[in-house]
Amino acid sequence: MIEVFRAPLDIDLSAFTKQLWALKISHRVAFEESQILLVAQPQYAANVYQLYQYWLTHGRFSEALVLEIETQQNIQQASPAGFNRSRKVNFSKIPVVITLLLVSLLMSTVVSFGENTQLLRYFTITDFQLFDDRVSYTSLMFNLESWQLWRFISPIFLHFNLSHIVFNSLWLWIVGTVIEQRHGSGALLFIVCTAGILSNIAQYLLSGPIFGGMSGVVYAIIAYAWLWDKLHHNKLRIVSNALMAFMMGWLVLGYTGILSQLGMGNIANTAHLVGLACGLLAVPCLKIWRLQR
């Protein structure tokens, strides 16, 4: 068995151990000069220590904390190299990821990957008209006044070539499924909506309404998963430092214009940057939300 912590002899751990048994965490308490709590499954050691720290302050585990621990128990723990031994996905627990993938494929196909401008106009962040030498478009305020509220989020589902949608879909599947299974559909939906809406607005203010893609959301979920692992014991273990460095390098290259010169089209750099910021900020925001539940 693995030692998790030592507690003074004058602390009654019976209430704590009772709650551990309720979570089906096998353990025992040994007595020497202090009380030593040991667990049978090494992968639960960090969780038990987290529960102990919470119990010392609050006495009983919160429902949110219990839900978080129970979710973690259903996911295989990391290998020695730091990544999951199994990427087995429970499809019943990833409705948000599945919906995002299907809607992206459907909308991108409907607008013929941007070629059908008449249909594209209904899903860009504002309506627009193309003239010979300019683009005319309505304002964000017009969206509010006319109740065209879907436009604030719909651009994330628009992709303009096959590689664009494949790239974003792969990252959504790899990272998004882990976040949704571990932290819940509500957490992933919050990240997607916040990053999607704010990155769309920022990109519109800089370049107008003709843009699309889920890259801002992809930056958000990658940033969220990376920062979460830096701040918590119960790690997601899906975004490494090397991957984060690559994404940051890609962001910088986008701003230099090199990617456009290489034939990759116009890069929504502002959406990427805002998505990155939203993902980082989502970590403390969701932590506060869980504590208040």
Poorly predicted runs are 76-86
Binned strand content: 5-15%
- Helix-and-strand structural type: mainly alpha
Tertiary shape: elongated
Number of strands: 5
Rg value: 23 Å
Overview of the molecule:
By secondary structure, the chain is mainly alpha-helical. It has two domains: 2-73, Alpha-Beta Plaits (2-Layer Sandwich), CATH 3.30.70; 91-292, Rhomboid-like fold (Up-down Bundle). The chain is built from twelve helices and five strands. The strands form two sheets. A three-stranded antiparallel sheet has the order 1-3-2, with helices on one face. A two-stranded antiparallel sheet has the order 4-5. A hairpin with a 3-residue loop joins strand 2 (27-31) and strand 3 (35-39). Helix 7 (162-183) runs antiparallel to helix 8 (185-207). The longest helix has 24 residues, at 269-292. The radius of gyration is 23 Å and the shape is elongated. Mean pLDDT is 87; it is low at 76-86.
Give a short overview.
This protein has helices spanning 14-22, 45-58, 63-73, 95-110, 117-120, 140-145, 162-183, 185-207, 215-231, 241-256, 258-264, 269-292; strands at residues 2-7, 27-31, 35-39, 128-130, 135-137. The protein has 293 residues and is mainly alpha-helical.
Question: Would you spell out the secondary-structure blueprint of this structure?
Answer:
Elements: E1 2-7, H1 14-22, E2 27-31, E3 35-39, H2 45-58, H3 63-73, H4 95-110, H5 117-120, E4 128-130, E5 135-137, H6 140-145, H7 162-183, H8 185-207, H9 215-231, H10 241-256, H11 258-264, H12 269-292
Antiparallel strand pairs: 1-3, 2-3, 4-5
